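Could someone model 2-oxoglutaric acid with this protein?
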Amino acid sequence: MAAPMTLAGGRLTESQRARYEEQGFLFPIEVFSAAEAAAMRAELEALEEEWRGAELPLPLNIYMRVNAQCVIPLASRLALHPAVLDVVEGVLGPDLMVWSAELFIKEPQTRARVSMHQDLTYWGMGETGDQVTAWIALSPATRASGCMDFVAGSHRNAILPHRDTFDPDNLLSRGQEIAVDVADEDKTPIELMPGQMSLHHGLTFHGSGPNVSDDRRIGLAIRYLNPNARQKVAARDYAMMARGVDRAGAFIHYAPPAQPFEASALRLYEEIRQDQAVALTEGAAGDVGLYRKAEAS
Ligand SMILES: O=C(O)CCC(=O)C(=O)O
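Reply:
Sure, complex below.
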């Protein structure tokens, strides 16, 4: 596993920034100690234990996979953490917003995978550079546990055609995969220890294989925007202010949750999910389960 990069006072150096621009990704970046990451994992697993059988309007899995920052304080705390923001600022500048935080969990010895794709395909924001994803490992992300693979330089492509597979083993919302064959030798495995993160551009080709290890693979993918980003497909979009100022006002701002699954946060969550669904389900030929309307109670 590669040694973590040496930051300058917790921030990217000019050459690290240039490497991100060149490759479309950067790793491994240590943002939390192993002990801090273990405490975060324990908090997450206690939350899963407490809420798994609870009466929530939607299945717990949806709240974890889509906009977890709205209803799970651990997710918003990580997304707003200064150690993470200091690094992200090196890519997006001083004004930062959190668009979404998504837990990608692969249970031990399971087939769950992520097909090769470009994130921006369904965000409704076009091919903007005003976004970056920070993916934080809360358990070892190794080749055996199904770490992500990135294709260096692929972020210089436009958004390429994707096909929806709706494969149940695919963790993506519609099992979308890029209609391009990616050779194994073009993939860089993004192995991370707990507390380390990677950054990737929304046009970078990436995916991940199954977890054949005996531990869970837990990652939190946080999508950051700067205020130059625009939602072009949905009528409205939302973001949590993280740092600096939003002079453009193109996104509706909201506050992080104080407690898990508060009633007001659950209402806002559903509003955001339904509005964003317009972009994220656009053109889908089948049912996009993560964005399906909640059944009326
Ligand atoms: O966690 C994974 O394996 C894939 C996550 C991903 O595709 C992303 O963060 O954009």
